[in-house]
Amino acid sequence: MLFFxxxxxxxxxxxxxxxxxxxCNTLSLTALQNVSIIGTGYVGxxxxxxxxxIHNLEDYTITCLDIDTHKIKQLNNGIxxxxxxxxxxxxxxxxxxxxxxxxxxxxxxxxxSNIIFIAVGTPTNSDGSVDVSYFYNxxxxxxKNATCNPTTIVLKSTLPIGTGEKAVDYINQYGNKNITxxxxxxxxxxxxxxxxxxxxxxxxxxxxxxxxxxxxIIHALYQPFITNNIPFLHTNxxxxxxxxxxxxxxxxxxLSYINEIANLCDKTGANIKDVSKGIGYDKRIGSTFLNPGxxxxxxxxxxxxxxxxATAKELNVALNTVTAAVSTNQRQKLMPYKKLKQxxxxxxxxxxxxxxxGLAFKANTDDxxxxxxxxxxxxxxxxxxxxxxxxxxxxxxxxxxFPSLTYCNTVDTAVTNADAVIVIxxxxxxxxxDMNNVKQLMRGNCIIDARNILDQKxxxxxxxxxxxxxxxxxx
Length: 475
Ligand SMILES: NC(=O)c1ccc[n+]([C@@H]2O[C@H](COP(=O)([O-])OP(=O)(O)OC[C@H]3O[C@@H](n4cnc5c(N)ncnc54)[C@H](O)[C@@H]3O)[C@@H](O)[C@H]2O)c1
Known about the structure:
- By secondary structure, the protein is an alpha/beta fold.
- The protein is 45% helix and 14% strand.
- The chain has three domains: 233 residues, Rossmann fold, CATH 3.40.50.720; 87 residues, N-(1-d-carboxylethyl)-l-norvaline Dehydrogenase, domain 2; 135 residues, NAD(P)-binding Rossmann-like Domain (Rossmann fold), CATH 3.40.50.
- The strands form two sheets. The chain has a nine-stranded mixed beta sheet with strand order 1-9-8-7-6-5-2-3-4, with helices on both faces. A six-stranded parallel beta sheet has the order 12-11-10-13-14-15.
- It is elongated.
């Protein structure tokens, strides 16, 4: 069954929708639902916190679980292990009203849970395929310990297409025969940096399920969103999984495309900022994801494009567009380094000092997974460059990868005596730097702006050798 509700759709759909709402109300008023979330990372913590925020204590309890005992201890002490704007306040508020708790006693909590989310990591194997071992560990724990009848298992992790059906087979084989299990694929679309907003205002909710009987349970859980007319798409398990991979691959293609067009502008003298505006005004294209940069990073696009390609390879299906997006991105990550070499020749880099502004893969997060800063740092270290790095949130994480860099507490310290500055992350504070002051502190005068966030005219007036991406130089 395909169920899709959106404001203005046909009356039949609306009737079906209101029947569901009725069912949901009945369900949420009659039974307290214990919800547990296995995996308290960027997704699990935000999902759990937002679910706690939108529900009454009488209807739902939310417990976030993790095998990382240090993380759970921190959370129980009110310390948020990740940087995500607005999260700390929301966690503390919901802990204080007993709507949200944290535990590493996974077995016991799962045994009392009606709804169990699995939101563990699904990193990339060395061959590009998805490492599903954390997922199967979590699923095994659920199967061993669940006692509620029915038990709804919500797959929130991004899992290779077909995993939901495999999970159903696994449960049929090893699950408790006295329990009815519903398996639901509910892909997550939040963006780090705006995760709370995205979770509270999703563009859509996608639910793939093994049984229609899971629907009222999931509807009740997401009822506040559904009453706000957020589109709700019900599909089978495999389709929901495919939606997630197709969405992220599409975004990756869009970014690689605009990066290539920016590289073309570098040669032609066109201005990518206006090109992006010019094509973004076209509603068929849309204006988001049209800013060129140093390549996409983060825990999703690089991993999910590779994951989709691994599935396609297994099935002998060509996904040439996705393959191209991935290889373009690999080249794009060296763009800041190549631009630097336009001003400082490769053999002259030895013993130079370069300030790197921004280590996170994007602004408003401390996540450095696949950050475009990493290949630039590696290249500079190969050339024996001294790196003075600054990031408002991500330095602790980057220290684990590159302990030998000089980490600075301010932009001023990072740029002091630098021969060149490379802006990697589009942190708002970099947009309003006092560049006159930066000029005084630097030894050299080269600025590589891999995000096009500095004002080119000011750079020119101050006498910097300035390179953005896809913008013609001022002479
Ligand atoms: N981060 C994002 O922006 C984002 C967005 C959409 C989807 N996703 C997907 O969501 C999933 C989670 O991503 P994340 O960024 O939150 O990962 P993360 O690495 O931040 O968190 C995963 C957590 O799971 C815990 N864990 C692992 N195995 C466990 C087990 N057996 N029992 C309990 N806890 C366990 C880890 O200790 C860790 O705290 C991934 O599949 C990812 O692709 C992530």
